[in-house]
Amino acid sequence: MENKEPYHKKYYKENKEKILERQKEKWANMPKRTKNEVLKSFREARAKETDEQRAKRLESAKTRYENNREQRLAYQKEYAMKQKKEMEELRKKIKKLEKSKA
Predict the structure, then answer these.
(1) Residues with Cβ < 8 Å from 19, sequence gap 6 or more?
(2) What's the per-residue H, E or C state across 42-78?
């Protein structure tokens, strides 16, 4: 018997970007009152959790953080390079304007 991956896990892997985009749009279009209710429910759930549940939640968050380290570093490097490039372009424009003004 084959060990098939559940449908929902396969679907999430295949459509990750589309799902994230829909979630962002949903949150952005949500009324402020509803957002506050959702955040309040999260806070209440965390207040009610046991020490074991809290330890498990924090451990899984730590694992996710460590697993995404390479992606974070790549993004930071790309962002820094983009910022550096933009600053160089602005400096060149400023020098060009100063020369044309003088």
Answers:
(1) 12
(2) HHHHHHHCCHHHHHHHHHHHHHHHHHCHHHHHHHHHH
Confidence of residue 56 (pLDDT cuts 50, 70, 90): very high
The radius of gyration of the chain from alpha carbons, rounded to an integer in Å, stands at 23
**Token pair 């600053």 in the structure block, residue:** 87
Integer Cα distance of 7 and 65 in angstroms: 26
Reported as a pLDDT band with limits 50, 70 and 90, residue 71 is: confident
Report pLDDT digits (tens) over 85-96: 999 999 999 999
